[in-house]
Specification:
This protein has 3 helices and 5 strands, in the order E-H-H-H-E-E-E-E. Strands 4-3-5 form a 3-stranded antiparallel beta sheet, with no helix packed on it. Helix 1 packs antiparallel against helix 2 and helix 2 packs across helix 3. The N and C termini lie far apart (33 Å). The mean pLDDT is 84. The protein binds zinc ion. Zinc ion (ZN) binds next to loops.
């Protein structure tokens, strides 16, 4: 059994990679999406890329953990998952079905049950 060395990627860094590199958002847009300034987003994505590059170059495993990612409270908010881009977000109760995915604008999404 091979014991891989691990690098840590925070949930925030993973989200930054998803928004900027996978969805191709600008730092401005992506920062807005994550609720941080463009400069802060720039720092997060820079660290994320460095970590991923380190893992790829040196064959390390990537472990995703931590960050300030907001956890969903299933008792108050409803959770939706976009079928198109995989974006997961929450809506306050009794506000009706959202019109579109806040990430990609697509309309193919469904409600999911979030486990505590
Ligand atoms: Zn989407």
């Amino acid at each position: 059994m091979i014991d891989l060395e691990q690098v840590q990627l925070t949930v925030d860094e993973l989200e930054a990679l998803r928004l900027a590199d996978f969805l191709g958002m600008s730092h401005e847009e992506a920062g807005k999406q994550m609720g941080v300034s463009r400069a802060t987003f720039g720092r997060i994505i820079e660290q994320a890329r460095k970590t991923v590059a380190d893992a790829l170059i040196h064959g390390k495993a990537i472990s995703v953990d931590g960050g300030n990612y907001r956890r969903v409270d299933p008792t108050t908010n409803r959770v939706f998952l976009c079928d198109h881009c995989g974006w997961r977000w929450e809506e306050p109760p009794a506000t009706g079905r959202p019109k579109k995915c806040p990430s990609c604008g697509g309309q193919a999404f469904h409600r999911v049950a979030e486990k505590g």
